[in-house]
Amino acid sequence: MERIVILTGAGISRESGLDTFRDEGGIWSQVRLEDVCTPEGFERNPAMVDDFYNHRRLELKNVTPNAAHSALAELEKAYGENRDDAFLLVTQNIDDLHERAGSRNVVHMHGELLRLRCLACGVTPAWEGACTRETPCPECGQKTLRPDVVWFGEMPLHMERIMQAIDACDTFVAIGTSATVYPAAGFAGQAAQHAHTVELNLVPTGNAQLFDEVSYGPATQTVPRFVR
Ligand code: BV8
């Protein structure tokens, strides 16, 4: 069976009602990345960062997966027990829409919105509600919780596993990502050395010339068509 790696970005969740980052009116036009998506920003004003992620947790409760998420879950079913990442879904997104659509082999390289991390004892509890500076860690009781997401300047997660899967894949598909943020933006170039590459995005990205196959338009149209 052909081995496939799929990389998704904020664009796949756009039609579920979640803002992207860099489109017009996107998240980085509403709040400064430096203030809410860096360790320095958290150091400077943790309450502002708490508010930013509490707002997104609340928003996530009111949205549902769309046809693009469902199409990827369908595609994964064809891989059955899917031994050794023959099908791997790598997402830059911190929402849980892939999982709620039924995807199983999902790697969140930028962490997860519905998880916290305790800076004192290291536990990463699932977290649906609001987290503030007064929220005690469920494990050690200390008030040292932060969002379990990867900020700029922090090491993305599961990189070795992702690199191995890309090196071994026959097909690499990038969906709904502007190819702006590294190291994710470098995956297409790595795959293009040996695999068939596909870009499914609203519009061509800066990586467009790296792709053998492209389809531009809303993900709820391009992804089900690609999967069929
Ligand atoms: C790191 C946190 C090193 C969670 C995010 C070169 C190499 C390595 C690093 C760097 C490098 N150059 C610069 C860096 C540093 C930096 C970086 O890349 N900066 C950029 C801005 C130049 N990278 C990092 O800091 C990374 N860490 O490299 O660590 C290291 C090494 C050793 C030890 C320690 C450290 C960490 C990056 C992770 C940052 N965290 N998020 C959160 O709050 O969400 S990144 C942020 O951008 C988002 O989370 C998202 O994950 C990411 C990418 O955005 P996209 O998903 O692509 O979204 P965007 O809005 O940009 O685009 C949406 C797309 O969808 C568009 O193309 C649009 O056309 C399309 N679209 C819209 N609607 C639809 C659609 N498509 C289809 N259908 C639609 N309806």
Automatic annotation (TrEMBL):
Residues 1-228 form the Deacetylase sirtuin-type domain. Its cofactor is Zn(2+). PROSITE patterns: SIRTUIN. Its EC number is 2.3.1.286. It catalyses: N(6)-acetyl-L-lysyl-[protein] + NAD(+) + H2O = 2''-O-acetyl-ADP-D-ribose + nicotinamide + L-lysyl-[protein]; N(6)-succinyl-L-lysyl-[protein] + NAD(+) + H2O = 2''-O-succinyl-ADP-D-ribose + nicotinamide + L-lysyl-[protein]. The keyword Coiled coil does not apply. It holds the Pfam family SIR2. Substrate binds at residues 53, 56. The active site is at 110 (proton acceptor). Belongs to the sirtuin family. Class III subfamily. NAD-dependent lysine deacetylase and desuccinylase that specifically removes acetyl and succinyl groups on target proteins. Modulates the activities of several proteins which are inactive in their acylated form. This is NAD-dependent protein deacylase. It comes from Acetobacter sicerae.
